[in-house]
Design a protein that fits this description.
297 residues, mainly alpha, 11 helices, 0% strand, globular
């Protein structure tokens, strides 16, 4: 277990909410506004942690356990992702499938909690989340398998390097698919808008409307950490990272670039119609499949 690997986990746990701050600041600057303070997510979490949680009489222990289980699943996925050219804390052949399983578990418990409230409104959001998840998971797995085949290894720590340098076409297609999955999995525009409050267009946010206090703080923190996990995966594939602390610095700069890029995308692209979102995500699956086919040739 190397120092950069431990430092990555510590940095992610501490700095993940900053990604959301950078995105909000970029969107505000593009719109000609000043934007919120960079520490605003921390202020919001501290405020929520000081409040008490309110539970519906129709909810069960599933609703109460969901935020903790979801956050734990994302943290477990974080331990499988390398950073800065260093191996992940947990690295073994086939860990890419466990990585996808942890992310699927986080989504599953969130959907269960939404259904547990007995609200038809949250059930609508859960249905949409399940549909989009069924489309993004194949795209993610196909992209990871394509990268693994190109690198000749089945571990994230072995192939999260600039595989596009081995095959530019496979790498570019896989990165494109991974970028779409990053936006879809983190409920960003053009798939979803985390700032919306329109009933007919909400997806992720509608599932957590009944959560409050510390539970809501855990959900927001897990969302920020999930964005970090996908950003680290994208940066690891896209940027050459030397071993040691030099690679750690390159990866950290790449994470800032990911946040800025997401902010620019959300500023320049409108949200898609709900009926067009599946086509957008299926495009990522097509890119991943083509990348895998080209790699197998």
């Amino acid at each position: 277990m190397s120092g950069p690997a431990i430092a990555h986990v510590v940095l992610a746990l501490v700095a993940a909410p900053l990604l959301l701050s950078v995105i909000s600041r970029v969107k505000a600057r593009v719109a000609g506004r000043r934007g919120p303070p960079l520490l605003q997510p921390y202020y919001d979490s501290a405020r929520l942690l000081r409040k008490g949680a309110v539970y519906s009489t129709t909810s069960t222990w599933v609703f109460r356990a969901s935020p903790v289980v979801g956050l734990s699943a994302v943290v477990a996925a974080l331990l499988l992702v390398p950073f800065g050219g260093a191996q992940a804390i947990l690295a073994f052949p086939g860990d890419l499938f466990l990585f996808a399983s942890f992310l699927a578990l986080a989504r599953f418990v969130t959907i269960l909690a939404a259904l547990d409230t007995g609200s038809s409104f949250e059930g609508m959001g859960a249905s949409r989340e399940a549909t989009f998840g069924a489309l993004t998971e194949p795209a993610l797995l196909l992209a990871l398998v394509a990268f693994a085949h190109e690198a000749g290894a089945g571990s994230l720590s072995a192939f999260v390097q600039p595989v596009w340098s081995e095959s530019a076409t496979t790498g570019a297609l896989g990165l494109g698919a991974l970028g779409v999955v990053l936006l879809a999995e983190n409920a960003r525009i053009p798939v979803d808008d985390p700032a919306t409050h329109l009933e007919l267009t909400m997806v992720h946010e509608v599932m957590v409307l009944d959560h409050s206090g510390p539970d809501l703080a855990l959900i927001h923190y897990a969302s920020a950490l999930k964005l970090w996990v996908f950003g680290a995966l994208f940066v690891g594939v896209a940027l050459p990272q030397p071993d040691g602390w030099g690679g750690f610095a390159v990866a950290a700069a790449g994470m800032a670039g990911v946040a800025v890029s997401v902010g620019l995308v959300e500023s320049l692209i409108a949200r898609l119609r709900m009926s067009a979102v599946p086509h957008f995500i299926l495009g990522a699956s097509a890119l991943s499949l083509v990348a895998l086919i080209l790699g197998l040739r």
